[in-house]
Write a structure and sequence with these properties.
The chain is α/β, with parallel strands linked by helices. 22% of the residues lie in helices and 22% in strands. It has six helices and nine strands. A seven-stranded mixed β-sheet has the order 3-2-1-4-5-7-6. A two-stranded antiparallel ribbon has the order 8-9. Helix 1 links the parallel strand 4 and strand 5. The longest helix is centred in the C-terminal third of the chain and has 15 residues. The chain is globular. The two termini are 50 Å apart.
Length: 248
């Protein structure tokens, strides 16, 4: 498929409506941008006559980098991906980030987890919660990883969004996130050394040999004659057997 949104010196404004169905209503409007500008519509169903027929679970999306100023996703993200599939979650938002221009926005509405329709609709395959947005912001990783219980997904997620609007009631979660380009983690990645590679011992015996060598280096004046057995439950047990219990 031919890509939309090819680059230019001063590209005209462009906006993308995904999962449009038969509605072309701009439900969420930024100040001064009340009407659509350069609208491109996308839907999986050709009967709705969108500009682009596409399944949103198929990545990458058929658009060039930095193609749009706004992406609108009304009641559609919950129909894509699966609950707990974090790789798709980050891959999808990375695609939104890729096709947004710097400072471009993703405007989305989803069922609130409190809504009876969150799982009442049989076509909903996941929930999008406000807490998920934390993991799209590189500055929060920098601030919280290693200091809180926050999971670190930066090994597979390189995009960067800042949440600029968040609203939730008993029926709907609405949010607006802005694409930060370049992402704020780039300089940190350039200056952070890669962690050392730890070679895994081929066997318990090899593990014991490595341990003995390190122990001798650090405690050369210690007696190692009893290192061949460890005390467990009141009875001596060979280290080889004990290590198998612990590591195999």
């Amino acid at each position: 498929m031919t890509e939309h949104g090819s680059s230019g010196e001063s590209p005209p404004r462009a906006e993308l409506l995904i999962g449009c169905g038969r509605s072309m209503v701009k439900k969420w409007r930024l100040k001064g941008r009340e009407a659509w500008s350069g609208l491109v519509t996308l839907d999986i169903n050709p009967d709705h006559h969108p500009d682009v027929v596409w399944d949103l679970t198929k990545l990458p999306l058929p658009f060039a980098d930095d193609a749009f100023d706004e992406i609108h996703a009304y009641e559609v993200l919950e129909h894509t991906g699966k609950q707990g599939d974090y790789r798709f979650f980050f891959a999808q938002f990375s695609e939104f980030w890729r096709i947004l221009r710097p400072e471009g926005v993703l405007i989305a509405t989803c069922p609130s987890p409190r809504s009876v329709w969150a799982w009442g609709d049989p076509s909903h395959t996941r929930l999008v919660q406000k807490e998920n947005l934390v993991f799209l912001d590189q500055s929060i990783y920098t601030r919280d990883v290693g200091k809180t219980a926050m999971s670190d997904f930066r090994y597979l997620y390189r995009a960067d969004f800042a949440t600029i609007h968040l609203q939730e009631d008993d029926e709907t979660l609405s949010f607006v996130v802005r694409a930060i380009k370049p992402e704020r983690s780039r300089s940190a990645r350039k200056t952070t050394a890669a962690p050392p590679t730890v070679k895994k011992p081929a066997s318990c015996a090899a593990f014991l040999a490595q341990y003995q060598a390190r122990f001798r280096d650090r405690h050369s004046n210690w007696d190692l004659s009893n290192l061949g057995a460890v005390q467990s439950g009141g009875a001596d047990k060979p280290v080889e057997a004990k290590l198998k219990e612990m590591y195999l």
